[in-house]
Write a structure and sequence with these properties.
- By secondary structure, the chain is mainly α.
- It has helices spanning 2-15, 20-41, 48-55, 65-86, 93-104, 135-147, 155-169, 176-190, 203-216, 220-241.
- The chain has a single domain (2-241), classed as Orthogonal Bundle (Fic-like fold), CATH 1.10.3290.
- It has ten helices and no strands.
- It holds the Pfam family Fic.
- The active site is at residue 170.
- GO terms for molecular function: ATP binding.
Length: 242
């Protein structure tokens, strides 16, 4: 699959710069679907169209304040990802905490950007995240992996593994999944790939691939899932410029 992805990436790169209006509408489409699906995976009940309306500044009746904030916060977190890429900043724990702070802003400010101080469990998963007192050590180890071994991997594998390792640590009380998907797309977008959308209808396969990675250290299924979504996003861009 990776060889097909690389060929499609070459085609996309050869077509750059894309027409301004085309690029803007593609980004709006993917960012909307990314926000909708990432929140829906975590239980947000806003539909795709309702998510679009909230992004336009309109309140949807019958929905909670938290659901509205999750949409606005995710938009702001994407903007922060774009800022990191634009400024060519190396990834750091500080940036990860900032991303998480944006994800939980106004929802749970006491825990926004703050590593958890208690044990948590992942519903439906065999994997149990590490004890709270190990989080700083685990996050430091993750960053060392990212800066050394991770730097040797292709952006797709590096991004997928960073996502999986981060979720396995589960460093925050809430918002780990959204933050992980932001980190995945940060790595992809740094390398010139369009963002991927992990679709809510694929939630079961997504969770199962993550749990397999955490319990067996076999990341193949999860990397393959990410590769499939990378190809989908590339196909969307290539169709738009034909």
């Amino acid at each position: 699959m990776l060889s097909n992805i690389l060929k499609k990436k070459e085609q996309l790169d050869a077509a750059r710069p894309l027409p301004t209006h085309t690029l803007r509408t593609l980004k709006e489409k993917l960012f909307l679907e990314w926000t909708y699906n990432s929140n829906a995976i975590e239980g947000n009940t806003l539909t795709l169209n309702e998510t679009k309306v909230v992004l336009e500044g309109i309140t949807v009746g019958g929905k909670t304040l938290r659901e509205h904030l999750e949409v606005i916060n995710h938009r702001d977190a994407i903007r922060y990802v774009e800022e990191i890429i634009r400024n060519q900043e190396p990834l750091s724990e500080w940036q990860i905490k900032n991303l998480h702070r944006l994800v939980l802003k106004g929802i749970d400010d006491a825990y926004a950007g703050v590593y958890r101080a208690e044990q948590v469990f992942i519903s439906g998963a065999e994997h149990v995240p590490p004890a709270a007192f190990l989080i700083h050590e685990k996050m430091e180890k993750m960053m060392k992996w990212y800066e050394n071994e991770g730097a040797l991997h292709h952006a797709i594998k590096r991004g997928a593994m960073l996502h999986a390792i981060f979720v396995g640590i589960h460093p925050f009380i809430d918002g780990n999944g959204r933050t992980a998907r932001l980190l995945l797309n940060l790595e992809l977008m740094k390398d010139g790939y369009p963002p991927v959308v992990i679709k809510v209808e694929n939630r079961l396969a997504y969770y199962e691939a993550l749990d397999k990675a955490h319990t067996t250290k076999d990341y193949h299924d999860f990397i393959s899932l990410v590769e499939a979504e990378v190809e989908n996003s590339l196909d969307l861009y290539l169709q738009a410029i034909k």
